[in-house]
Amino acid sequence: MDVLPPQMSAKDEGSFAYFTMKNRAPQILIKVINTLQQHKNEFFEKLGEVGTEAEKKLLSLLSKLLNELQTDEPLLPLTDNWVDTDIWNQYLKYHHSLLNETNKKISWFQSPWLYVECYMYRRIHEALMLSSPISDLDVFKEPKEQNFLESQEAIRILCSYLQGLNKIENLDENQLKDEFFKLLQISLWGNKCDLSLSGGQSSSQTSSPLTVLEDLKPFILVNNMDYLWLLLINRKKMRQETFSVTRVDFVLDNAGFELVTDLVMADFLLASKLATEIHFHGKSIPWYVSDTNKNDINWVIEQLKAANTKCMSECGINWEDYFKKHSWVYHDHMFWTLPYEYCAMSQVAPDLYAELQKSNLILFKGDLNYRKLVGDRKWGFTVPFHQALNGFHPAPLCSIRTVKAEVQVGLAPGQGEQVAVTDPQWMNTGKYGIFQFDGHFDLA
Ligand SMILES: [Mg+2]
């Protein structure tokens, strides 16, 4: 087998990985610490002295974490007792076994960026686990909810648009295709709303998500939407004779506005019969600030149900119903919050891999999924996506991602270089997007 390129690391000064660990990561921790301090009284009001003590413990653990990060201390084994604690500690041991003379410690600025960044969020979870009885606290709840509330107008427009498509059976194939492409692009650009990229600062959708699509088209660098359409429409046509179901999986990224765009897409897929069942995969612990947990989905549905606007409340009611009837299914799995690249999934989480193999199309939302798909490695821009997946092919899959980290494969020769000329920061801002499909899984 060919030697894989190295993973990105904060040891490359001037890289986005370095910038993230130097600036964004501490900023996120400081914001968490400040928010906890602001809500001091609530812990006492809810739990009395025990609450105050737990909050103090949590604050001291987070401050210690911040200090370790800022002084590039070695990564420590986890000391909590969660389902994945042993796996994380084995992973650390494994990295120790790889050390050589030139790279003497496993630390924030020496080790792979993907590993240390995931580790930071896992350490926040550890701090919570060790601060009973407030272990269930979601320290990112406030910014996630704020993103949803600030995006109200955009959400209303989307819900109203979706409701307007209720005569979907009357659309001819070309019209259906147009709507499919439109909602896919909304789901793509919804991925701009990322609170981890903005260091936890507000990142909401305040303009109409529909009117901007044409203007944004030049920023789609890889556009495999046609493949997705052909796959789904062909299955729909053949379903009567050959297939009984079409299952589409969403591996979710952010809660708030992006989540609504994904749910709208999922609703459309069912209504148009392009799919017959939808499976969502979220994170089981608070992750990368704005990533979706089960609680976030429930909260969004409750908010919509309670909205004064009919189109929104109807969406909330319908979506709750889909979950009840199991045409929508929510899954979480600890693998999504481990530091592994996805080519390790079949070894590390064979149950999850087997679950994904049942899918007819897996949509991976967002940047972290992309980084894990391609191993967060320093691939050349023109390396084929299929090659960078390094054997990860549970089912036909597509990355839907706005580019926020310095990894991108599958571009045309010269394309990456050309974009860099006009926009040197093109890989770090979320301004560019991709629909990158890999359907050659059975040829592997
Ligand atoms: Mg995210």
UniProtKB/TrEMBL annotation:
Residues 20-419 form the Damage-control phosphatase ARMT1-like metal-binding domain. It holds the Pfam family ARMT1-like_dom. Belongs to the damage-control phosphatase family. Sugar phosphate phosphatase III subfamily. This is Sugar phosphate phosphatase. It comes from the Eukaryota. Its cofactor is Mn(2+); Ni(2+). Subfamily III proteins have a conserved RTxK motif about 40-50 residues from the C-terminus; the threonine may be replaced by serine or cysteine. Its EC number is 2.1.1.-, 3.1.3.-. It comes from Phascolarctos cinereus (Koala). InterPro entries: ARMT-1-like_metal-bd_sf (IPR036075), ARMT1 (IPR039763), ARMT1-like_metal-bd (IPR002791). One of its GO terms (cellular component) is nucleus. It catalyses: beta-D-fructose 6-phosphate = dihydroxyacetone + D-glyceraldehyde 3-phosphate; beta-D-fructose 1-phosphate + H2O = D-fructose + phosphate; L-glutamyl-[protein] + S-adenosyl-L-methionine = [protein]-L-glutamate 5-O-methyl ester + S-adenosyl-L-homocysteine. Keywords: Hydrolase, Manganese, Metal-binding, Methyltransferase, Nickel, S-adenosyl-L-methionine, Transferase. Gene3D superfamilies: 1.20.930.60, Uncharacterised protein PF01937, DUF89, domain 3. Metal-dependent phosphatase that shows phosphatase activity against several substrates, including fructose-1-phosphate and fructose-6-phosphate. Its preference for fructose-1-phosphate, a strong glycating agent that causes DNA damage rather than a canonical yeast metabolite, suggests a damage-control function in hexose phosphate metabolism. Has also been shown to have O-methyltransferase activity that methylates glutamate residues of target proteins to form gamma-glutamyl methyl ester residues. Possibly methylates PCNA, suggesting it is involved in the DNA damage response.
